[in-house]
Amino acid sequence: MLDSSQKRTALALVDAFNRMDVPAIIAFRDPACLRHFYPTAMAQLPQDTGTYAQSLTALHAIFRNFSLTIDELIEDSSNPTRPRICMWLSAKADTAAGEYVNEYVWLLDFDETGEKIVRTKEFSDNLMARDFFPKLREAMGKERERKAAEKAQTNGI
Fold first, then answer.
1. Tens digits of per-residue pLDDT, 129-157?
2. Is-contact 32 136, C-beta < 8 A?
3. In degrees, to the nearest 5, what angle opens at C-alpha 109 toward C-alphas 54 and 93?
């Protein structure tokens, strides 16, 4: 049996993330797609496609060797006009603060063709994020200071 178009799209999306190919990631989204964050206790507003692209571009500069692994993929095709995929994902990357390790659950709603994502709901391990991102900000600040000192030394300042 052939994979559905939405499953092919979901797999291609993960591949694009593994290459950190921001234009390819964005190309899978309908222009009106919104990215919703969960749990709601994170109090993050949904991201439109432009904001999402900016976030991904910023992450591309921070994460090296980013890797997403699909731990589980569930397809819901009970509504042919609104197919869905749910994926449990493990993420790893190298950063200035050390290894980034996180888990996500993505619920992807597709258009009727299964080729464009019209809505995402993203659950992430916010305990990991709460602990990791302050360390990352600190490490990035030290890296900026180090580079500024090197530049000043090179320029004879």
1. 777 777 777 877 777 777 777 777 887 76
2. no
3. 45
Nearest to 30 by CA among 86, 103, 112: 112
Q: Using 50, 70 and 90 to split pLDDT, how confident is the model at 53?
A: very high
Q: CB of 31 within 8 A of CB of 43?
A: no
Residue type, 148: A
> What is the distance between the alpha carbons of residues 97 and 7, in angstroms, rounded to a whole number?
34
Structure tokens at 15: 């591949």
Question: Kind and range of the H or E element at 57?
Answer: helix 49-62
In three-state secondary structure terms, 113 is: coil
Q: State the Cα–Cα distance between residues 121 and 20, nearest whole angstrom.
A: 20
Q: Is 43 left (phi over 0), alpha (psi -120 to 50) or beta?
A: left
Its pTM stands at: 0.83
Sign of the dihedral defined by the CA atoms of residues 21, 22, 24, 29, in that order: positive
Going by their DSSP bridges, the two strands 98-110 and 117-124 should be labelled as: antiparallel
